[in-house]
Each structure stands twice: as structure tokens, then as C-alpha cells.
Amino acid sequence: MAKITKIEDVDKYMKASNENNDSITYYNPKSDNNFKVLGLAFFEKEHEYFRLPIKCKDKVSEAVYWLASQPTGGQIHFKTNAKKIVVKIKNKGDYTMCHMAKTGQQGVDLYYRLKGQKGYTFYTCSKFNVPDIEFESTIFECDDEDIKDIIINLPLYEGIEYILIGVNKNAIIYPNKYKNNGRVVVYGTSITQGGCASRPGMSYTNILSRKLKYEFINLGFSGSGLGENELAQIINTIPHVKMLILDYDANGGATGDMYNNLEPFIDTFRSKHKKTPIIVISKVPFSVDELNNEATAKRIRLFQFQRDVVRERRMVRQDKNIYFIDGNTLLGDKDIYECLVDGIHLTDLGFYRMANNLYKELKGILKSNEKCNNKHKKR
């Protein structure tokens, strides 16, 4: 009897789904107009899977610029009648995070929607052998040739040299007539970036983009969301922004930068976006803070500071389009620490709860703002 050495020896569903044959035709989303890349604000102009302008290197920190090469929030949209969809990917590197699945860190996943279906359904993620940085993986298979709307979510924590989308020969690719209601920019930390979702579609910004039908621009920078004014200036160059979410308490609050730069960040954004909703979110509860008196006191002070900034701007400056959301409410009221991987970063459950609780708030604010804008247009 052969000696068992690997899990795939006994469980076929644990195998990497590699594809390497002549039955697949590949397309490059960078050069093929049948594909629409969303979630990367500068892609249309620069055709790079990069979250900031390539030329901003001298304007931001080395850490932020490196993290910007990780295309979290990027989505590839298209329609097809394909029975099989394969991705061919080359990542920019390979490093293993101690608490995050490779499928979320450097893989992709796929959602589809059939005709008449309201929302998208998850199918699977790319499965590849570690430490491969170049791989092919089947991410969709079906028995019919019905037209399907497809979203492929890009990696959360690894850059990509290229991604090619493959379909079975004779399958047709169509552009998806995506109704883009505008962009929601989310500036924040590792939690915003997607740490530590098991796959890209479970990042809270990706969940919200599917639920709200807005394009979400993820500007979460792991350990580096410090609220520098240069980031606010870059955000002001992004067109069609319908909302700004500031979720950087866990970094900027920890360093103390938030006390000095929250208001300047808002002022810079307001210099261009006079009425666009701004949402300030305090951080979600961390179990590692629970029994630490100093950390608990610090969290309360930061909560009060952000709440008071928003209150003052609403009541004194009459800015009725700025809102505060208490992060303590976003993981629910039961078993909240089951939402965490390491006492700080979120599990898929945490992202799901966070997205669902934010959805209720954001939907109402976006709808109200749209009505307001439509009234002004009619005058």
C-alpha cells in the first residue's frame, strides 16, 4: 500500500484545480473591451492593477505605495455563455501570512448571475499549489450555454503581473452592461484591505459592492492607514465619488495621527465634494483589547473624538452630509469575538456581519443623497 503523505491523496476536493490543455481560449482584460475592470479607480487611464496613480510614488509612504500594488477591491466584469472558465495568473511575489488563507491573499474567486436572478451567487475560488506564483485554475464549470454575468474578484494581499481569463473554445464573451451608480471610496486599514478574508469576495467592500450596486474603491492600507493629507488629495482626483468612508481608527488612532489629521482630511475632501456623504467609522471591537485597561480606555477616547468631530460639523458647521457609525455595533451583539482570526482581523463571519450592518446605514444615506441631487437637477 502506498504511503499517504498529502491530504489530496485522500480527498480529491483538496487538490489544486490546475488547467493546462488546448481546449481553452484566453483573453487579456487589459486589452479586450469585452471585460470591464472596476474597483481600481485609475485602471481606465493607466491599465495597471494598481490602486493609486503609478506616479504618486514621491507623494505617499513606501509602505502605502507597495500596498497599492495589491489590487484588493478590483473586479473583472463580463458576460459569457461559457461552460468552463479558467484563470491564468502570475503573482508578483509569494510570502505566507501567518493568519490568512492563500486563497484570499493571492487568489481570485468568481460570482455569477443568471438571467432573471437578482443577486450574484458564489461559485468557487482559484486553487493552486503553494508556493506557486504562476498557475492556472478552473473557477467555473456548468452544463449549459446560458448567458451568465460574471464577477472575478482580484487578490487582497498580493500584486499580479498578469491575469488572463480563459473559456472553452467557441464560447462567446460579451461586455456586461454594468449600471454604475457611482463610486464609494473606502479609506482605511488592514481590515478595509480585506485581512483576513478566506477569499476576495468576502472582503466587506466587495460584499457591499454586490449588495448596493455601487463601485467600491478600496483604499485600505494594512498597518499604514494613517490619514495623510496626500491620500485625501489623491481621492479628490477620483471621478464620480458618491460617498467617502473613513475607517482608519485602528491605525491612525493607534498612532495618535487621527487626532491631528481627521479634520484636515475631511476639509481637503470637502474642498471639492461639498455635499458628498462622508461616513466616519470607529474601529470594531478587538478581543485582545478586552482585558487591557489602557487599550480599552484608548478605544473609548478615540470613539468619543470621532463622534464629537462629526457632531460639531453637523451642528455647528451645518454639514448634514457627514455621519458617524459606531464600530462597536458592526459585529452584532452576540458572539462578536467569533468574528476575529487573531483577536484583531476579521474572519469571513466578521466581514459578513460588518457588511450587513453597514448596508442598512449606507443604503439609506446613498438613497437620500440621490433624491437630493435629482431635486437640484430638476430646478
Helix-strand layout with pairing:
Blueprint: E1 24-27, E2 36-38, H1 43-46, H2 62-68, E3 75-80, E4 84-91, H3 102-105, E5 109-114, E6 121-125, E7 134-141, E8 148-153, E9 160-168, E10 173-174, E11 183-188, H4 190-193, H5 204-212, E12 215-220, H6 229-235, E13 241-247, H7 249-255, H8 257-270, E14 278-281, H9 293-315, E15 322-325, H10 348-378
Task: Sum up the structure in keywords.
five-stranded parallel sheet, 379 residues, single chain, alpha/beta, six-stranded antiparallel sheet, 29% helix, 10 helices, globular
- The end-to-end distance, rounded to whole angstroms, is 82 Å
* Content-based structural category: alpha/beta
Write down the secondary-structure element order.
EEHHEEHEEEEEEEHHEHEHHEHEH
Could you say which overall geometry the principal axes of the C-alpha atoms support? globular
Number of strands: 15
Work out the strand percent: 15-25%
Oligomer: single chain
Average pLDDT metric: 94
Rg over alpha carbons: 21 Å
Unreliable runs: none
Main sheet: strands, sense, barrel: 6 strands, antiparallel
Helix content: 25-40%
The number of helical segments is 10
Structure in words:
The chain has 379 residues and is α/β, with parallel strands linked by helices. It has ten helices and 15 strands. It has helices at residues 43-46, 62-68, 102-105, 190-193, 204-212, 229-235, 249-255, 257-270, 293-315, 348-378, and strands at 24-27, 36-38, 75-80, 84-91, 109-114, 121-125, 134-141, 148-153, 160-168, 173-174, 183-188, 215-220, 241-247, 278-281, 322-325. Strands 2, 3, 5, 6, 8 and 10 form a six-stranded antiparallel sheet that branches. Strands 12-11-13-14-15 form a five-stranded parallel sheet. Strand 14 (278-281), helix 9 and strand 15 (322-325) form a beta-alpha-beta unit. Helix 5 (204-212) packs across helix 10 (348-378) and helix 6 (229-235) packs parallel to helix 8. The longest helix is centred in the last third of the chain and has 31 residues, at 348-378. It is globular, with a radius of gyration of 21 Å. The mean pLDDT is 94.
